Amino acid sequence: MFGARKICSFTVNLNQNLKHHLNQKATLLCQSNIFQQKMSYVNNGLNADKLDISGMRKPYRGKHDIFDVSDLVSREPFEQFKSWFEEAKNTEGIMEANAMSLATSTKDGKPSVRMVLMKGIDEKGIVFYTNYLSQKAVELDENNAAALLFYWCSHSERCTVSRQVRIEGLVEKVTQEEATDYFHSRPRDSQIGACVSQQSQVIPNRKIIEERNLELQMKYSDSNTPIPKPDYWGGYRVIPNRFEFWQGQTNRLHDRIVFRRPLDGEQLNPDVTHAGVDGWVYERLMP
User: Fold this and answer.
1) Residue 16 CA neighbour count, 13 Å, CB half
2) Torsion sign across C-alpha atoms 133, 134, 137, 142
3) Are 60 and 249 in contact (CB under 8 A)?
4) Pairing of strands 255-260, 281-284
């Protein structure tokens, strides 16, 4: 019995030593592979601490699926935008077709960009709402030039969409009546959220906004009590002077068609610049 115990103990120790030895070899092998991978990055001129994303590619539309001037639904950009927007809104995989990046800059030209939601579009322009204390609002007060970007991308089994719409223009505030009407069309939680937040102001912790939110939730717990729109909350309208419609192609020969307002006194070249309607002209750009 005693001999059997010694053999069993010896076997366990042997197995443990063997396991430890194998773990050491696996670790060394793993380190060796990582070292070789990093050396490969260095030899190829890449930073060894960064991921190599140069090979990341997705197929877009095929060359049989081009977007040309003959495919325009209108000779002015708003109807063309609405056509693409409706398609994006109904495309599987595109969660918020009205999401857009908004680029603004200070009077000194320092840019900033963020995502906002389009909440209206008409023949005048594109509308979004925000807090007038925010960074974007401060910058728009200094410099009312802005740019928007809609990016619609979906690679579902049913269809592939790879489109952008770039919009440039000047910005004006919507009327108080417009802002108030939209404010009261929002869910009550969103109305209270607008009252809680003095956007972009520095605070010590999240507890402050949670307490303020709870305070207002209790104050306006009666759904029949209207929530007043804060004076510091309202909307902006981007009045476009340029639209660019971009459609991706797998071979990177992307389609780009621009609508723009011609400059005062500009001599247009009819070979490349075409007369649209409502004072717009349109052109095709190189990818």
Assistant:
1) 6
2) positive
3) yes
4) antiparallel
Tell me 229's DSSP state: P
Residue 14: helix, strand or coil by DSSP? helix
Token representation of residue 85? 């927007």
SS (H, E, C) 129-194: EEECCCHHHHHHHHCCEEEEEEEEEEECCCCEEEEEEEEEEEEEECCHHHHHHHHHHCCHHHHHHH
Contact 168, 132 (CB under 8 A): no
Contact call for residues 241 and 168 (beta carbons, < 8 A):
yes
Identified catalytic residue from 252, 256, 260, 261: 252
Instruction: Report the residue count for the chain.
Output: 287
List, for the chain, all residue ranges whose pLDDT scores fall below the cut of 50.
2, 4-12, 14, 18, 22, 29-30, 34-35, 41-42, 48, 62-63
Percent of the chain at pLDDT exceeding 90:
67
> In which element (H, E) is residue 20 found?
helix 2-43
Q: What amino acid occupies position 128?
A: F
Asked if 66 and 249 touch (Cβ cutoff 8 Å), the reply is yes
At 208, list the tokens. Answer: 């402050």
How many Å apart are CA 59 and CA 154, to the nearest integer? 11
Active site residue 57: no
Model confidence pLDDT, tens digit, residues 172-218: 999 999 999 999 999 999 999 999 998 888 999 999 999 999 999 99
Rounded CA gap, 122 and 82, in Å?
10
pTM score of the predicted model: 0.77
